[in-house]
Amino acid sequence: MLKFAILLFLSLPCPPDPCCFALLWWQNAGGWVRSVRSQKEVLFLHINDGSSLENLQVVADPSLEKRDLTFGSAVEVQGKLVKSPHKMQNMELQAETIHVVGPCDIWSFPLKMKERHPLEYVRQFPHLRCRNNTLGSLLRIRSEATAGIHSFFQDNGYVHIHTPIITSNDCEGAGELFQIETSSEAKESAEKTHFFNVPAFLTVSGQLHLEVMAGAFTHVFTFGPTFRAENSQSRRHLAEFYMVEAELSFTESLQDIMQVMEDLFKTVTSTVLSKCPRDVELFHKYIAPAQKVILFSSSCRISYSEAVEILKQAPQTFVFKPEWGCDLQTEHEKYLVKHCGEVPVFVVNYPYDLKPFYMRDNEDGPQHTVAAVDLLVPGVGELCGGSLREERLPFLESRLRRLGLIDAYQWYLDLRKFGSVPHGGFGMGFERYLQYILGVDNIKDVIPFPRFSHSCLL
Amino acid sequence: MLKFAILLFLSLPCPPDPCCFALLWWQNAGGWVRSVRSQKEVLFLHINDGSSLENLQVVADPSLEKRDLTFGSAVEVQGKLVKSPHKMQNMELQAETIHVVGPCDIWSFPLKMKERHPLEYVRQFPHLRCRNNTLGSLLRIRSEATAGIHSFFQDNGYVHIHTPIITSNDCEGAGELFQIETSSEAKESAEKTHFFNVPAFLTVSGQLHLEVMAGAFTHVFTFGPTFRAENSQSRRHLAEFYMVEAELSFTESLQDIMQVMEDLFKTVTSTVLSKCPRDVELFHKYIAPAQKVILFSSSCRISYSEAVEILKQAPQTFVFKPEWGCDLQTEHEKYLVKHCGEVPVFVVNYPYDLKPFYMRDNEDGPQHTVAAVDLLVPGVGELCGGSLREERLPFLESRLRRLGLIDAYQWYLDLRKFGSVPHGGFGMGFERYLQYILGVDNIKDVIPFPRFSHSCLL
User: Fold this and answer.
1) Is A129-445 assigned to CATH 3.30.930.10?
2) DSSP classification of residue B104
3) According to the UniProt entry, where is the signal peptide (chains A, B) (predicted)?
4) What chain A residue is nearest to B33 in terms of C-alpha separation?
C-alpha cells in the first residue's frame, strides 16, 4: 500500500513528519496523467490517483518522455520526493523512471486535457466521467458524507438497520412502483406465478420496517436505495435514489424530530467541509459561484396554515392557486423559502387528508391536521419529510378501515397491540442534500450512475 | 435525549463519571418490560431499551403495580438511579412513578417471558422478532459490523461508491436474475415498452461498476444489497443479501487482494468483539456452544489444482467426484477446510473455463488458469471471492468475442483503452460473515427481513 500512499501526503494540511518522510524519500507513485508539459530542459507531469483533487507534480529529464505518455494514460513513476520550490505545492517527485502502464488513445478519449467540460457533457460517458475533476470531487464528497451519516447516528446511539429493498408492501400507496419478477417470469406472460408467491416491489421507503425496529430499539436508522417509477425528467427526481431515514421511540414532540434533522445536517456538513475543503471549493468556484454553505445558522418554522396564508398574500401569482388542503407545489416552496430570507424552513402540521395513514392525528379543528414536518431548503425545495406516527390503536384501526387497508396492515396494527410507544421519524434525500450543499442544479450529477425514465446506462 | 440515555450507562464497562452521574440522579427511563416479579414488600421490573442486552432493574413499592404492567408492555419510569446492592449490575432505578405507555396483550403476544424461543419459532414473526433477546443482539452486532466495515475502508483511504441497484448489465451471465418493470407494465402483458427503454435487472454484483471507478481512484469499495433469483431453500442463500466489494488499482498480485480480505475480517471482527461482547457471548453460549471466533490467527493457502489432488486422495467418497475443471461443491469445500485444520482456506488459480470473462489469464499450461481466489471458512464455505481483472485489451477483446458479448461490453473495453491499470478486487457476503463469526446455522436468522423463494413477508 505504501507504494501509492504518496498522494495522500500531498493532501495533508502540513508537511509530514520527518520520520515518515524518510520512509517516503525514494518513492513509487502510480496515477493517471492530468497534464504533460515538455520544456527544453525539463519535463513536467501532473499525475492524480484520486485520493485528492491535487495532483502530484513530477519533474523529469526530457529524455524520459515517450510517445504514449499522454493525458489520460496510467503511469508508475519512481523517483525522489523532494520539497517543491513552488508555492502551490508542498512536494514534487523527481523522476528516475516513468513507466506507462496503460496508454490512452487521446483522439477517441472524450475528456480533453485542461478543459473544463460541462456536467451535461460528461454525463454522456457514465463509465469515464469519474476521471473528470468535478465528478472526482463529487464522489469524494459523497463518500465522506456517507461516512459522516453513519458516524453521526453511531455516535448518537442509533442502531443501523438494513431495511429490505424488495417488499410486498406498497408503503404509501402513492406513486408508481417498480415490480419485480424473475427474468423467466418476465418472458412468459399469462398466468404468472410469483417467485415470492406474492407480487413484490422495490421499496419506496424503509419507514414501516424501521417502525418494526422502533418497537425494540429507541433509536434506529437506515441509509439505502429507494425507488420511484415516476415518468419525470425533473432535475430533482431519480428512479433510484438514496435516503437516510431515522425513527425515534419515546418521543411525543415534532421538535425532537426537527432537532435530529438539524443536527444531522450540521454534523455531516461540517465533516464534509473539514474532510474535503478543496473539493467543496471547486463546486463553489466553478459550478455554483453564488453558493454559500449555510450551516443552518438560522432557520424558520411555520405551520402549514401560516404557509398558505403567506402564499395567499404573496404579491405574485402562482400557476397553482394556494388553498388550504392542497399540496405545496415547487413554486410555493420556493416562495416560502424566499419569504423567510433564503434559509431552511420547517413547515409543520399538514392537513389530515393530505397525508398517509400512519401520521399522528393532531385532533384539532376546524382544520384537521397531522403532526407532519417538511424541511424546505433554498434551491432544492423539500429536503426532509417526517412526522410523529399514530401510535394509538383505535385511531389507526379506524383510519385503515376507512381506507380499505385494514387487512393488509394487520402486522402494522400488531406493533400497536404489543407495547406501543409514541414515536416519530423522518427521511432525508441524500442526493438533494448533496445538491443543496454543493449548489448542483441537476440531481443526475450527484450520483455515480443515475437511473431515470428512458435511461439505465451500464 | 438525556431522558433515555440511562440504559446506555448500564452498558458502560466502568461506572460513569460522578459529574455525569449527578445529572442522571433523578431519571426518567423508557423501555419495554422484560420481566415483572412482585414480592410482598418490593416489586422488581427488568426493562430494556435496546441499547444493550442488559436490562435496567427497577425497584418499586408493590403499590405501583398495575394490571397492564406486563411482559412486553412499554413503560416510562421516573425515579432515583442508585448503586445496586447486587453484583450482577452497576445500578438500579428506585421508582417513584411507573407509567405504562403501551400495554401488551400477553395472551396473543407470541413471545413469552423468560422463554428462550428457538430461532425457527421467532422467524415466523418478522414484525416482532426484534423484541427477542437473540435477534436484538444480532441486530446490534450487525449494526456494529456495518459501522466497522465503513470505518475499515475509510481509514485505509478507500472511496465509497454507491454502485447501482438497477442495471442493464447481466454481470456474470450466470444464475437467474430479477427483472424490473413498472407495476402498470407488469399488468399489461403483450408488447412491452420498458420504463428504462431497455430490460433492467437487480444487480448481482457491483464489481463492473466499481471497476469503472478503479480507473480514477486507486481504492474503492461498495457495501449494499445484491440479488439472486435462485429457487433455493438453502441455509446459505437469500434472494436479497448484502455484499461488501472492494477494488484496488495498481496491483498485480493476488496476495494484495487476500491481504485486504484478511485485514477486513480481522478489523471488523475486533470491532464487533470490543463493541458488543455480551451480544456475541449470547450466541456462543446458547446458539453455537462449540463456536469460537477464530481471528484469522492462522490460515491456509492452496491452489485449485492442489485442492483437487487433496480431494482425489481423500478417504471419503463424494456425491460429486472431484475432477480438474469442475466447480468445487459444498462437500468439497467442507473437506478442504477440515483437511487444513478447520481454519480459513484461500484457494487460488481456478480453471480458465470455469470463471467469468473478466478474470485475469494466468497464461499457464497445460492446465489453463485465471488469477482467482476464493476464501473458504469453517461451517459456512465460500465467504469471499475475488480475482485480478484482465486489464489487457487484446486478451479481453478476444475472450468477449468468443463469448459473443463483444457488443454489450464496449463500455467495459473502453476502460482498457484509456489508461488501463492492473487491478483486482473481491466481494464478501455480509450475512455469511455474520453466520461465521456467530455460528448461526441459517442465513435467514442474520438479516432483519429475509427474502427467499416463496417468502417476502412485510
Assistant:
1) yes
2) B
3) 1-16
4) A419
Q: Is the dihedral of CA B436, B437, B439, B440 positive or negative?
A: negative
pLDDT band at A257 (very low <50, low <70, confident <90, very high): very high
> Using a CB-CB distance cutoff of 8 angstroms, which residues of chain A are in contact with residue B160?
142-143, 146-147
According to DSSP, residue B449 is labeled: S
* Domain-wise residue ranges, chain A: 2-115, 129-445
Find the radius of gyration of the CA atoms of chain B. 26
Residue of A143, A233, A263 to mutate, interface with B, max B Cβ within 10 Å: A143
Grid coordinates representing A431 are: 442526493
Residues of chain B with pLDDT below 50 are: 1-24, 190-191
Return the number of CB contacts < 8 Å for A and B. 338
User: Which class is domain A2-115?
Assistant: mainly beta
Measured between CA atoms, how close is A306 to chain B, in angstroms? 29
> What phi and psi values does residue B39 have, to the nearest 5 degrees?
-110, 175
A239 CB neighbours in chain B (<8 A) are 166, 195-196
Distance of CA A90 to the CA centre of its chain: 33
Which residues in chain A are closer than 8 Å to B453, comparing Cβ atoms?
Answer: 195-196
Please check whether residue B231 is in contact with residue B199, taking contact to mean a CB–CB distance below 8 angstroms: no
**Cross-chain Cβ contact B414/A165 below 8 Å:** no
**Spatial CA neighbour of B389 closest among B402, B371, B401:** B371
Decide if B426 contacts B257 (C-beta within 8 A). Answer: yes
CA B200/CA B206 separation, integer angstroms: 15
**Grid cell for residue A167:** 417488499
Asked if residue B139 lies in contact with residue B130, where contact means CB atoms within 8 angstroms, the answer is yes
Q: How long, in residues, is chain A? A: 458
The pLDDT tens digits of the residues spanning A157-203 come to: 999 999 999 999 865 565 689 999 887 766 655 446 789 999 999 99
Supply the pLDDT for residue B186.
Answer: 62
Mutation target among A127, A132, A142, A211 for the B interface, most CBs of B within 10 A = A127
What is the average pLDDT across A382-395?
A: 98
Dihedral sign of CA atoms A78, A82, A87, A90 in order: positive
Is B179 in contact with A182 (Cβ distance < 8 A)? yes
How many C-beta atoms lie closer than 10 Å to residue B315's C-beta?
Answer: 5
Q: How many H-runs (helices) and E-runs (strands) does chain B carry?
A: 13, 16
Q: How many CA atoms lie within 13 A of B119 on its CB side?
A: 20
Reported ipTM: 0.94
pLDDT digits (tens, 9 = 90+) for B131-185: 999 999 999 999 999 999 999 999 999 999 999 999 998 655 656 899 998 877 6
SS3 label, residue A28: strand
Q: Look at the pTM and tell me if it is higher than 0.80.
A: yes
CA–CA distances in Å: residue A201 to residues A178, A428, B127, B267:
6, 21, 18, 36
How high is the pLDDT of residue B295? 76
The C-alpha of B119 sits at a distance from chain A's nearest C-alpha, in angstroms, of 17
User: What is the structure's pLDDT at A112?
Assistant: 95
Average pLDDT over residues A138-142: 98
B269 burial (CB, 10 Å; 0-12 / 13-18 / 19+) is buried
Q: How far apart are the first and last CA of chain B?
A: 30
> A64 to chain B, minimum CA–CA distance in Å?
18
Contact assessment for residue B369 and residue B350, using Cβ atoms and an 8 Å cutoff: yes
Are residues B87 and B58 in contact, defined by beta-carbon separation less than 8 angstroms? no
The DSSP letter of residue A328 is: P
Give residue A23's pLDDT band: very low, low, confident or very high (50, 70, 90).
very low
The x, y and z cell numbers of residue B254, run together, are 493476488
User: Minimal Cα distance from A217: which residue of B?
Assistant: B50
Check residue A319 and report its DSSP letter. Answer: S
With CA atoms as reference, the chain B residue closest to A226 would be: B165
Q: How far off is chain B from A318, nearest CA to CA, in Å?
A: 32
Q: Which among B32, B142, B418 has the least Cβ separation from residue A128?
A: B418
